[in-house]
Amino acid sequence: MKIKSDLFYLLEAESDKFAFDDEESAVDKIQEMAEKGRPDFENVVLFKVDISGEEWSVNQIPWSKIATKLFEG
Asked: Which superkingdom, per the lineage (predicted)?
C-alpha cells in the first residue's frame, strides 16, 4: 500500500481495514459494502489521518458527514 500524500483516510469495518487517498473513495467503499448487505454499521469507523509535521493527527469523521455524502451519492 502506498500513500500519495500526508493526508489519508482509514476505514475500519468490522475486522477489515482500508486506506484511501481521499474521503470520497472511503465513503464509496462504505456505500459498496452497504449494497452487499454488510457490515454492521455500529462497527464502522472512518478516520482522517494527517501525517504531516512532527505530530500526526487522527480524527474520526462524524457519521452525520458520512450520511450526507451517502445520500448525495
From this structure: Archaea
